[in-house]
Design brief:
The complex is a heterodimer of chains A (about 375) and B (about 150).
Chain A lengths: L2 H4 L8 E6 L11 E7 L2 E8 L7 H5 L4 H8 L7 H16 L5 H29 L3 H22 L8 E2 L2 E2 L7 H24 L2 H7 L7 H6 L4 H5 L7 H4 L20 H23 L20 E9 L2 E9 L7 E5 L1 H6 L2 H5 L4 H11 L3 H5 L1
Antiparallel strand pairs in A: 1-2, 2-3, 4-5, 6-7, 7-8
Helix pairs in contact in A: 3-4, 4-5, 5-6, 5-12, 5-15, 6-7, 7-12, 12-15
Chain B lengths: L2 H13 L4 E4 L4 E5 L4 H10 L7 E9 L4 E9 L4 E9 L6 E3 L8 H12 L2 E3 L31
Parallel strand pairs in B: 2-5, 6-7
Antiparallel strand pairs in B: 1-2, 3-4, 4-5
Classes of the chains: A alpha+beta (about 375), B alpha/beta (about 150).
């Protein structure tokens, strides 16, 4: 063999450092992974983040509570509605405002639609990461239908800003229920296509089963939440553990698996889409009459104190920690974002696997980079 | 609140007499001296009555004179949350011991606090700035000033 080939850095004898990102299709945003490799085997992953750090927490300190809501859209832009809800619930809890049932039900329906479209995009991009480009088209095709409902209802397609402290920006439009029901009927038919296309695919299963296992103990100790944790058997669904909005009055199952590998993280999200449709079906015909917003004071001041509210976004537990000193601006706001925590196990999960598996593992964590950087 | 919670406060008081245990609006809050943080953290995780194994959130707070770290911890067994607070008054060189050996999930949170508040965590496995690679100062401190990028009205 030629001398230079024998001493090639890719022969597995020497460590080779590969820079993935910040502009790389599989990182789904400006995430940079410095991967140390031995041949094809990953020995260490060092995530470099902060490329879109906007200092949202600092900005919150000089904004009023209704203004903060618009910043939360920009964290996890696929769970925008749920992020809004977290801040609103926290403000309403601090002010001890009773929210009418109509608002709770509409919020829950919108949150579950948000979850469905987020998981649709997960499915689309996860398939694409693993080489199935068809998934991307199918996923986006169906997601458009949810975004159309959002656009009709809120004016925005992704950055909805539909919640405000005390209720909603405006009422749902007269055709809302009909449109949602049409979507559910449509998506019940098209979701089996997803399974036919990807779930049963031999190549897909070979590339995901047994890859990147996260045990229950590791998930708890690392603070992992959301579908990633539920695939490892960690029952952490905030909708069940600490029901908010209308989740206490509906029946749904918390999707749990015990395997904890990439394939089961994928399966959790597939099943959650079905559960979300069940939730919407239970609520869509039972939207109570009533006001769509409670009348609030023009300037919202929270009583002095500390408030913590958590909600279940499409990716896990979002915690909003507000310290108020009685002014119209919060003294300190901390967003405990699910992606930030979930990223921390990427190194642990991908050690010892091949570089192609790294793409599958990071895809299955479903990272949204603006939520990590904030 | 409940009798269950009362036991919780009592047992923490009996473990560390100096810790201030108060019933907050939402959760039981413990204020502890930074030097006693590690011992309390071990107790909170390992004691079967406590079982706080899930590090939900670690936040840095600038209280004006003091810098503080707030830990939201949850017990997956008992499904309850507790808040642990600690404060350091030395703003030039604030040091708190890292709880990463106890809760690995605190690692990134502590790096974030180091980056934005400048609190150094001893025994942290990898304490480097997280978001802001080349910057002076700690932006989330209340006395941080940046004439170029922060517009004050």
């Amino acid at each position: 063999m030629e001398e230079h080939l024998k001493n090639s850095v890719t022969d597995g004898q020497e460590e080779y450092v590969l820079n993935i990102g910040p502009q790389h299709p599989s990182t789904h945003g400006v995430l940079r992974l410095v991967a140390s490799l031995r041949g094809e085997i990953v020995t260490n992953i060092e995530p470099h983040i902060g490329y879109i750090h906007r200092g949202i927490e600092k900005m919150c300190e000089s904004l009023t509570y209704p203004q903060i809501i618009h910043l939360t859209d920009r964290m996890d832009y696929l769970s925008a509605h749920i992020n809004n809800e977290a801040v609103c619930l926290n403000v309403e809890k601090a002010l001890e405002i009773d929210i009418p049932d109509r608002i709770k039900v509409i919020r829950t329906i919108m949150a579950e639609l948000t979850r469905i479209q987020s998981h649709q995009l997960f499915w689309a991009t996860f398939g694409m990461d693993l080489g199935g480009l068809t998934c991307f088209f199918y996923g986006l095709r169906d997601r458009e239908k949810v975004l159309d409902i959002f656009e009709e209802t809120c004016g925005g397609r992704m950055i909805v800003s539909y919640n405000c402290p005390g209720g909603l920006m405006h009422d749902i439009h007269p055709g809302f229920q009909k449109r949602v029901k049409e979507f559910i009927e449509y998506f019940r038919k098209t979701l089996p296509e997803y399974d036919q296309l990807l779930t049963g695919n031999v190549i897909f299963r070979e590339r995901t089963m047994g890859i990147g296992k996260l045990t229950l103990g590791e998930a708890i100790a690392h603070g992992i939440t959301g579908p990633t944790a539920r695939a490892s058997g960690f029952s952490c669904d905030v909708r069940k553990k600490e029901p908010y909005s209308a989740y206490d009055r509906i029946k749904f199952n918390e999707v749990l698996f015990t395997e904890g590998d990439t394939y089961h993280r994928y399966l959790v999200r597939m099943d959650e889409m079905r559960q979300s449709m069940d939730i919407i079906e239970q609520l869509i015909d039972n939207i109570p009459e009533g006001p769509y917003a409670v009348k609030m004071k023009p300037i919202i001041r929270l009583p002095e104190g500390e408030y913590y509210q958590r909600v279940e976004t499409a990716r896990g537990e979002l915690g909003v920690y507000i310290i108020s000193d009685g002014n119209k601006n919060p003294y300190r706001v901390k967003f405990r974002s699910p992606n930030f925590v979930n990223l921390s196990v990427l190194n642990m999960l991908s050690k010892g696997f091949k570089i192609a598996d790294l793409i599958a593992i990071s895809g299955s964590l479903d990272l949204i980079i603006p939520d990590i950087d904030r | 609140m409940s009798a269950d919670n009362f036991n919780l406060e009592e047992s923490i008081r009996s473990f560390d007499g100096d810790a201030i245990v108060t019933e907050g609006k939402q959760f039981t809050e413990i204020t502890v001296h930074p030097e006693k943080l590690m011992a309390l953290a071990m107790f909170l995780r390992d004691n079967s009555e406590m079982g706080f194994d899930f590090p939900a959130c670690v936040s840095g707070v600038d209280y004006g004179n003091d810098l503080g770290v707030v830990y939201h911890l949850r017990s997956t067994k008992h499904n309850r949350t507790i808040v642990v607070k600690t404060r350091v008054s030395d703003r030039q060189n604030p040091v708190v011991e890292s709880v990463t050996p106890i809760w690995p999930g605190a690692e990134y949170h502590e790096r974030e606090i180091f980056d934005l508040f400048g609190i150094r965590f001893t025994n942290h496995p990898d304490l480097r700035r997280l978001f802001l690679d080349n910057s002076d100062g700690y932006p989330l401190r209340k006395d941080y000033s940046d004439d170029v990028n922060i517009v004050t009205k």
